[in-house]
Amino acid sequence: MQVYDWQLITEKYGPRVWQIAYRLLGNHSDAADCFQETFLAALEVSRRQHVRNLSGMLARLATTRAIDRLRQRGRQERHRAAAQEAPPGSACDGNPADRAETGELTGRLRQAIGELPSQEAKAFCLRYFSEMSYRQIAKELDIKTSAVGVLLHRAKARLRERLTAEERPLDEVTR
Amino acid sequence: MTNEKDILNKALASIREEQTPELPKDVVAETLAQLAQTQSASGTEGSSPPGQSHVRRTGHLLGPIVRFTAAAAVFLLIGYAVGRMTGPAPLDVDQLHNTLLPALAAALEPTLREAVVDDVDQRYQLALAGAYVRLRDELTEQQRSDMNRYAAQTLAASNAVTNQLLGELVQTIKADQTNELRSVAAALLQFERNRLEDRETLTTEFLALAKQTEETRNELVQLVVNRPPAQRRPDEQETTEEQRID
Predict the structure, then answer these.
(1) Could you tell me how many CB contacts below 8 A there are between chain A and chain B?
(2) Residues 6+ apart with CB under 8 A from B121
(3) Residue among A5, A47, A10 nearest B45 (CA)
(4) DSSP structural state of residue A27
(5) Predicted TM-score of the model (pTM)
(6) Complex ipTM, two decimals?
(7) Given A175, B24, B88, B97, which residue has the most CB atoms within 10 angstroms?
(8) Which of A1, A39, A167 sits opposite B7 (nearest CB)?
(9) A127: how many CB neighbours lie within 10 A of its CB?
(10) Is the dihedral of CA B26, B31, B32, B38 positive or negative?
(11) A111: distance to nearest CA of chain B, Å?
């Protein structure tokens, strides 16, 4: 069994795990819980098996925990409050209307990710939030590289469908 | 379709452009504390007396081996049964036992040896990790307490030296002030003496001047009294006549 210096590991990989968790969850408290759960899960995994790619494993665990939290949040219908929480220093700082629209859009995307099937959500998040290659995703999820492409294609199609379906009623109301 | 693609890309770009705050130190500290707590809990579990967690851990590790052993035994039993049923004559049990025993021992020994070595290695590494964390924490705490003690001692010594130097400085200033006051008092005394001497001299001089003035005035009076009337000037005579008319 390997001996890990978790303080060093936290210093080295902590910012990346925090970025993944915060991007997916969008608020501080959930991101902090996800951060702690990720490292505790990593400790358990490292006891059970030999870890070759610690960074990839932490990214996968953070993504999985964040998706679980998104699902839990969706079940409790708290995503509205999370969507209304203004992200600090977003790209549309100048215009409150744009900022509100961006916040609502990101909240809907997070909700839609939480409603995706597990593998599709993991593949999508690892690709677009952790910026991993198809090969790295396939390695982490223990699937073939071609299956990653299929999962990503399905995930994007479902997300587009959900985002557009939620946008249409708003457009009709505004008209 | 373009709108659908745009909306997903827009949402992704919005999430990417959101500024992620810095990783809070309290979250890191809390996570490290939980990791240490979990590690220490597993360390105590590893050092518990045999018969408790040891059995569970060994069972967890030896599960596949037991299954493999059972499968091998079943396979051998089936082979033995088939051989017994299809064989021309019944075999001698002792002979069969003696024949199969070395093969079984040779087949199972490396696997069991590897499992035992892995188990011992894992428990050793767990204990080593726990001891490493505890030793690091103790050394850190000891270093902190030593630093605090040395800092307090250094501060006390520095304060004593500073107080001594300040006392010496105050004594030096007092001595200088005393000397200055003495000098000023001597100068003032000298000024007073000079002033008294000057006053006395001036009084004497004034008296001499008054005396000479009085003598001069007397001489002038005497001179005017003793001068004959014909020698008076005309203006003095007219004045005398005017005074007479009045």
Answers:
(1) 107
(2) A1
(3) A47
(4) S
(5) 0.47
(6) 0.74
(7) B24
(8) A167
(9) 20
(10) positive
(11) 12
